[in-house]
Amino acid sequence: MQNYHNYKVDLSNCDTEPIHLIGRVQPHGFMLILNKQTLEVEQLSTNIGEFLQADPVVLPGKKLNAIAFKEEYATLEERIRLQLDTGTKVELIELQGKPFFAFLHESQGNLVLECEPYMPVQHGQQILDLTGGYTRFLEKLDQQDSLVAQAQQTTQFVQQVLDYDQVMLYRFDEDWHGEVIAETAKPGVPTYLHHHFPASDIPAQARALLLQKPVRQIADVSAAAVDITPYLNPTTGQPSNIIRSELRNPSEIHLQYLQNMGVQATLSVSIIVNEKLWGIIACQHKSALLTNYWRRQLCLNVAQAFANGVLAHEEQRDLKQLEELRVQEVQLMNQLMESRDLHAELQKQQSAILSLSEATGVALLLDGKCYTYGFTPSEQSLRSLAQWLAEHVGSSSFHTRQLSNIYPAATDMQEQASGLLALEISKLNQEYLLYFKPEISETRIWAGKPDKEVEEKPGRIHPRKSFARWVQVIKGKSLPWSLNELEVAQTFVKDLTAVVLRNQKEHLTELNRKLSQTSEMLRAKNRRLEDFTHIITHNLRSPLGNMQGLIDLYNDDPSAETGVQVMHLMDNMVQNMATTLDDLGLILESELSTELEDQEVYLPDLVERELQNLQPIILQTDAKVEVDLQVKHITAPKVYLESIAHNLISNALKYRSPERQPLILVKSWQEQEGVCISVQDNGLGINLKRFGHKIFKVYNTFHQNKDAKGLGLYLTKVQAEALGGGISVDSIPGEGTTFKVCLKV
């Protein structure tokens, strides 16, 4: 009979073999599967009669007291209940006056009770020897300065404890291939030191078993296995799950594998680091050998001690190098944080970014741009890689020594990018910091060519028979990533993300400020357009009403004399309306101008042209004009500057005092907010207490002057505000006025 009903195993299906449902046990002990509540026997191994006076045919359905003396059963039941409460798994018990090691665990709601004959320690000296040897082992383990030296110390002590022919310490790599990194063997035993074994030798479900059951013994590879009866559990109707069993029979394909190696007994002890399977202490013997529980437990303690050493080595850092890298990272971040142009600074700091690791190339994909330094793939390849990372990698930090194994497109860029350290900035935007290491060639020694072999006649796939040295050159791999590299790179990308977020916040704040400013300008412009509507209504409705009155007058007295008078008055009204429409058009043009072209204006030339245009009135009034332009160049719409200069200078001449020679000073200077232009005169002045609130409103005049319209200051205010500035006035009646325009240019 095989391990399963109607199920055959070979290498074609061993990776899916349900080893937890094996229906057989090794013969050096017996198994009982009990109802948890009643302790009735539901299944048992058929060899129970070899250890106790019990009939495996009639025992199913009976309580456990059927195989124990009365006084034994009371103690046994108490211990079983206590074990379930405390989690204790191993007990020394008596059945029918015989001592046994009892192993108990729960499975699918049932209890699995296994017993193997008790092997006492022969004498007190043996206990002292084992205890003293273990203490010395721990001392020597701490004295070793490398992981390999600790591994060798471990195999030597385990071989001393077990007296097996060969003890190997076997380490898994990231692909679950194994390498023997330490070995202690008796003379004449073939060595497997530094040999590799393919992942298929220990498939996934077997590795899962090694996590759940860290100590696993096969006492006799050639021993006939014992059936569990009935094969199907009467309560569940399924084979019982005995994955945590001490006695569970091994996979038949594994037994054949061991026979091909010439091995008759094995003991494997899992090395578990941070709850992950790191490796195995694999013990092999050329003849059958049953190891008692005491020694098995001691080997488990040894494996745990070695695992602690592994953890210490993996956490060990080159502290000096780490501190230097941290200083470099801080200096780099200071440069990036102080710069107001992150993209330009990143371009300058590419060499510093690369120096944070031992990589030979670095790429940064950020804000749609791609920065590279050193030996990297093409930009197109980098963007494709970023897309793959965003779609397939869930963690924010990812690294590998063999990128092409998981990302086939990397096969074409192994020379630059066999190793990848990828740190996510924004998965949504496919923004990453990528470090690359180049391909190195690695010579790997296999324990036999790791291929499946087919028997010629039955065509069955079976484990390889040859374990002779077989050399293979592995390509597409890089040097590993150190803990220092991972930590500093992760710190850098976090700090960089913080700078990006800061800049984005500042950018949004500036946009909001400009939006608020634009909204206020639009509100002001809307208010002025409303005023404009009222102006049109007022300035056109009144003349139209007067014209209608003249028509009514002519209708009442259609004489020639009345007609001439009406036509004369009509002509004046039409001329006034035309002038009003011209003024309103000028106002509307200023209000609706939202964007004029900026030019570099040379202010002295502009002022000189305005003075030339006003030369007749300057000569007529004997006005003296002084110019003091500290700022000579202004970048702004030229037409606005011409209008502002014309309105302010012409107003200074227009509202001169008849009692003195007009004196006018035109100035420009730099202030914190921008450039200021002022025109100061010694003219009539304005009563600001009386008229200050409406001085810049349209059609408001404050002096009796036939040329005054009340448009110039209004237009100047509109144009100054359009340039992000404003206008102010300082005046004393009878002494003069100064108008100051400040522009954010």
From TrEMBL:
<feature type="domain" description="Phytochrome chromophore attachment site">
    <location>
        <begin position="158"/>
        <end position="328"/>
    </location>
</feature>
<dbReference type="GO" id="GO:0009881">
    <property type="term" value="F:photoreceptor activity"/>
</dbReference>
<keyword id="KW-0597">Phosphoprotein</keyword>
<dbReference type="InterPro" id="IPR003594">
    <property type="entry name" value="HATPase_dom"/>
</dbReference>
<dbReference type="InterPro" id="IPR013515">
    <property type="entry name" value="Phytochrome_cen-reg"/>
</dbReference>
<dbReference type="Pfam" id="PF01590">
    <property type="entry name" value="GAF"/>
</dbReference>
<dbReference type="InterPro" id="IPR003018">
    <property type="entry name" value="GAF"/>
</dbReference>
<keyword id="KW-0418">Kinase</keyword>
<keyword id="KW-0808">Transferase</keyword>
<dbReference type="InterPro" id="IPR036890">
    <property type="entry name" value="HATPase_C_sf"/>
</dbReference>
<dbReference type="InterPro" id="IPR035965">
    <property type="entry name" value="PAS-like_dom_sf"/>
</dbReference>
<dbReference type="InterPro" id="IPR016132">
    <property type="entry name" value="Phyto_chromo_attachment"/>
</dbReference>
<keyword id="KW-0716">Sensory transduction</keyword>
<dbReference type="Pfam" id="PF02518">
    <property type="entry name" value="HATPase_c"/>
</dbReference>
<feature type="domain" description="Histidine kinase">
    <location>
        <begin position="535"/>
        <end position="745"/>
    </location>
</feature>
<keyword id="KW-0675">Receptor</keyword>
<dbReference type="InterPro" id="IPR043150">
    <property type="entry name" value="Phytochrome_PHY_sf"/>
</dbReference>
<dbReference type="GO" id="GO:0000155">
    <property type="term" value="F:phosphorelay sensor kinase activity"/>
</dbReference>
<dbReference type="InterPro" id="IPR013654">
    <property type="entry name" value="PAS_2"/>
</dbReference>
<feature type="coiled-coil region">
    <location>
        <begin position="501"/>
        <end position="528"/>
    </location>
</feature>
<dbReference type="GO" id="GO:0006355">
    <property type="term" value="P:regulation of DNA-templated transcription"/>
</dbReference>
<dbReference type="GO" id="GO:0009584">
    <property type="term" value="P:detection of visible light"/>
</dbReference>
<dbReference type="InterPro" id="IPR029016">
    <property type="entry name" value="GAF-like_dom_sf"/>
</dbReference>
<keyword id="KW-0157">Chromophore</keyword>
<dbReference type="Pfam" id="PF00360">
    <property type="entry name" value="PHY"/>
</dbReference>
<dbReference type="InterPro" id="IPR036097">
    <property type="entry name" value="HisK_dim/P_sf"/>
</dbReference>
<keyword id="KW-0175">Coiled coil</keyword>
<comment type="similarity">
    <text>In the N-terminal section; belongs to the phytochrome family.</text>
</comment>
<dbReference type="InterPro" id="IPR001294">
    <property type="entry name" value="Phytochrome"/>
</dbReference>
<protein>
    <recommendedName>
        <fullName>histidine kinase</fullName>
        <ecNumber>2.7.13.3</ecNumber>
    </recommendedName>
</protein>
<dbReference type="InterPro" id="IPR005467">
    <property type="entry name" value="His_kinase_dom"/>
</dbReference>
<dbReference type="InterPro" id="IPR052162">
    <property type="entry name" value="Sensor_kinase/Photoreceptor"/>
</dbReference>
<dbReference type="Pfam" id="PF08446">
    <property type="entry name" value="PAS_2"/>
</dbReference>
<keyword id="KW-0600">Photoreceptor protein</keyword>
